[in-house]
Amino acid sequence: MNSHKPVHSPKVHPSNVRSSKVHPPKVHPTVYWHALEDGRLQCDVCPRACKLREGQRGLCYVRGREDNQVQLYSYGRSSGFCIDPIEKKPLNHFYPGSSVLSFGTAGCNLACKFCQNWDMSKSREMDTLADSAMPETLAVSAATLGCTSVAFTYNDPVTFLEYAIDTAEACHEKGINAVAVSAGYICEKPREKFYGVMDAANIDLKAFSQKFYKHICGGQLDAVLDTLKYLRYETKVWFEVTTLLIPDENDSEAELHAMTQWFYEQLGPNIPLHFSAFHPDWKMRDKPRTPPSILTMARKIALENGLHYVYTGNVHDTVGSSTYCKGCGHRVIERDWYELGEWQLTEHGDCLHCGEHIPGLFNGLPGNWGAKRQSVRLIDPITH
Predict the structure, then answer these.
(1) Which of 32, 154, 186, 271 is most buried, taking the most CB atoms under 10 A from its CB?
(2) How far apart (Å, rounded) are the C-alpha atoms in residues 283 and 304?
(3) What is the pLDDT of residues 176-206, one digit of tens each?
């Protein structure tokens, strides 16, 4: 993993960041596919294994068959760019307080009925990708804006795998970290290449039920669990896990116990777990918002089952969003939404009270980006 010192909030925030790169190609070739005996081409990026005839798109919509190969239609194109706090990904143990240049494209390889970013992930209109930036442009822009990282988020980067990989490599050349926010629904070979260039990730564990994945997400639980174990034991990627709790769907005490017990046994006690509140959206507008009490209960169950770093999100809960030392119990990072308060760690992440090391990536004092969210536009002077 690449470790880079976090950069604090930039002194200036230009609305336009210019680059000398050319306009991105209309389509981009891919390599993870193979021909079937019946003449179709099978996409091998994710377990969905879409089988395509000429002119057909996969379920993600941004990968399709053209000129007898599977091509990517969203390379170099985005629905917009924004500077976020790293805690919003959410990543609480990866250079806390630093800023991250976030962007997504369109499409998704799952079909979650509760999608919170459905306007981008479910889009079938390529016109939503009105902004463009090639990988080198993104890397230069992140450095210019004072961002520690670039995050592939809003929709799953597995769908724009080649674009994300090239951007991550360009970022590393500029000393910028690459962060993936993903559902972890990816096949073995592309997974190795994809996470081989990522510094950090947040994986959505939608639920701990195959029934939930099948009927609400259109996917398979086991594939996601395999990705989590792969990240834990076969990579150096710093990763955290998020579960969005939906009332009466995946928030039962029995399921939370089963999930957190598996988490402890398979991933260990030190991987941070986030429980986030659901709000009605997309095709689940009939469900109520998640009560804060459910998040508190879930956090309590996870802690009882041996996890050390469990957080609540999308609610105002300073206790549930702060970090506590597992050695002495002192609060070492105070959080109020995305604002950092009291800081009781050494520059390397050791507790000032007892010396216990807090797992994660820390380098000196925390960043001071805070809760700000700033949209930016990346302009190519050649095409504009």
Answers:
(1) 186
(2) 34
(3) 999 999 999 999 999 999 999 999 999 999 9
In a domain, 274, yes or no: yes
Q: Are 278 and 295 in contact (CB under 8 A)?
A: no
Chain position carrying tokens 């002119």? 55
Burial 315-336 (b: 16+ CB within 10 A, else e): bebeebbbbbbbbeeebbbbbe
Asked if the structure places residue 41 within a domain, the reply is: no
Edge-to-edge strands, sheet with 339-343: 323-324, 331-336, 339-343
Pull the structure tokens for residue 42: 């099978």
Q: Is residue 54 domain-resident?
A: no
Question: CB of 249 within 8 A of CB of 212?
Answer: yes
Rg (CA), the chain: 20
- Please give the pLDDT value at position 284: 82
Whether residue 57 lies inside any domain: the answer is no
Under 8 Å between Cβ of 354 and 327: yes
Domain that holds residue 223: 16-23+74-379
Measured between its terminal Cα atoms, the distance across the chain in Å is: 36
Residue 133: which CATH number?
Answer: 3.20.20.70
Q: How many domains does the chain have?
A: 1
Per-residue pLDDT tens digits for 84-97: 999 999 999 999 99
pLDDT confidence tier of residue 26, bands split at 50, 70 and 90: low
